[in-house]
Design a protein that fits this description.
335 residues; alpha+beta; six-stranded antiparallel β-sheet; 9 helices; elongated; BTB/POZ_dom
């Protein structure tokens, strides 16, 4: 008698072979509390993604795989994986595109990240009129009441648009390393733009004043009311959700900035750290940023004192110890 195709013969005799698994197994996903159903093949389209790694492991007790991401945009992610880049339709709204870009980045679907970056660039080009400023339609931070005095003091320091200096660069690099931040800036805010005296992780030297996060630290004007600004998720903060630096490069999602407050109480700018994904900020991290902002301000004021000495002015002798650039050696591990 011919052998049954569904049977196998071994040392224990003939028995029915176990059924083979279908090529496209159904997978249940719990994304931020909302259920999605897809196939193992779809979720494995990007082998290096978080999704592909997740479904290679064991599911939860109920048979589903849990992902702590925003369910409002996960449908777009599935559409991209099912249909591919050629047939994918991105959201029309630039803020929704930015949110989806954040989700794609966190899930490690880099082809979608690239596609959305191009889509947002095309949207920006299509809406911006020739000759219009980049911040058209976005209000930005309010102008403080002491703006005239603030700008006069900033100009008197003769630090704007000067060459890079090692001690400022060290501050940016050390803060980036200690806080594990991709971008750290020493930002000085002038009348029309903010300029970066030091920077880590950002190519640009300036941005418009209107798009400055740091300018929000200038109010209220009372020096006793000066405080740090922390925005853990920029897309959900109405003050900056439409900021060109949020919906476009560098796609700011997290911001923490401590104002650079001079000895006379004026704020010149801020020492800030930035991330492209939302995150929290602890008290210890905030205190560290405050300490380095004080140090940065001391360097700024020290440069003015040194200039007065070089020009024959009276400063009462040597620089105060807290303003002496030699008092800390960032490269020798003094921190």
């Amino acid at each position: 008698m011919a052998a049954c195709l569904d049977c196998v013969t071994g040392s224990c005799g003939t028995r029915r072979a176990p059924p083979t698994a279908p090529k496209q197994q159904r997978v249940e996903l719990n994304v931020g509390g909302k259920r999605f159903t897809s196939s193992r093949r779809t979720l494995s389209q990007c082998p290096s993604s978080v999704l592909a790694t997740l479904i290679s492991g064991q599911p939860e007790a109920d048979g589903s795989y849990f992902i702590d991401r925003d369910p409002n945009f996960f449908g777009f992610v599935l559409s991209f994986l099912r249909d591919g880049a050629e047939h994918f339709v991105a959201p029309d709204d630039v803020r929704e595109c930015a949110s989806l870009l954040r989700e794609a980045t966190q899930l490690g679907i880099m082809e979608l990240v690239v596609l959305l970056g191009r889509e947002m660039a095309e949207q920006a080009e299509g809406t911006q009129q020739p000759g219009a400023p980049e911040t058209r339609g976005y209000v930005g931070a309010p102008i403080p009441g002491n703006e005239t005095e603030r700008i006069a003091l900033l100009n008197s320091l003769d630090v704007l648009y000067t060459r890079r200096e090692h001690h400022y660069d060290c501050i940016a690099d050390v803060v980036a390393a200690l806080l594990v931040m991709p971008i750290v800036l020493v930002s000085l805010v002038s009348t029309s733009e903010q300029w970066f005296k030091a920077k880590c992780g950002l190519a640009a030297d300036t941005t418009s004043r209107n798009s400055s996060f740091c300018a929000f630290t200038f109010k209220p004007e009372d020096p006793k009311m000066a405080s740090m600004l922390v925005i853990e998720d920029a897309l959900r903060d109405p003050r900056v959700a439409d900021n060109p630096l949020v919906i476009g490069e560098p796609y700011i999602q997290f911001y923490a900035g401590c104002p650079l407050v001079t000895s006379c109480g004026m704020r010149l700018g801020a020492l800030c750290c930035i991330d492209r994904v939302p995150r929290s900020f602890t008290f210890a991290q905030a205190q560290l940023l405050v300490n380095f902002s004080h140090l940065t301000t001391q360097y700024l004021e020290a440069s003015q004192l040194e200039g007065e000495i070089d020009n024959g002015g009276s400063s009462g002798g040597a620089l105060p110890q807290e303003l002496n650039r030699g008092s800390l050696d960032f490269t020798a591990g003094a921190l």
